[in-house]
Amino acid sequence: MPSPSSYWVFGLFFTALFLSSSSSFSPPISVSSFDEFRNYTAISEFRILNRRFLAECPDTNPYLEINVSKDSRLSDEEYLTVTVSGVLLPTENDWVAMISPSHSDISSCPLAEIFYLQTGDLSNLPLLCHYPVKAQFVSNDPDYKSCKKKECKKYKNGKCVVTTCAGSLTFHAINIRTDIEFVFFAGGFKTPCILTRSTPVSFASPEKPLYGHLSSIDSTGTSMRLTWVSGDKEPQLVQYEGKSEESEVVTFTQDNMCGTEKTSPAKDFGWHDPGYIHSAVMTGLQPSSTFSYKYGSESVGWSDEIQFRTPPAGGSDELRFVVFGDMGKAPRDNSSEHYIQPGSLSVIEAVTKEVSSGNVDSIFHIGDISYATGFLVEWDFFLHHINPVASQVSYMTAIGNHEMDYPDAESIYNLPDSGGECGVPYWTYFPMPTVENKKPWYSIEQGSVHFTIISTEHAWAENTEQYEWMKKDMASVDRSKTPWLIFLGHREMYTSTQSFLGPDPDFLSAVEPLLMANKVDLALFGHVHNYERTCAIYNSECKGMPKKDEDGVDTYDNSNYTSPVQAVIGMAGFSLDKFPNNVNNAWSLSRISEYGYVRGHATREELKMEFVESNTGKVGDSFRIIKSQSS
Question: How far is CA 544 from CA 531, 563, 625, in A?
Answer without folding.
Answer: 20, 7, 12
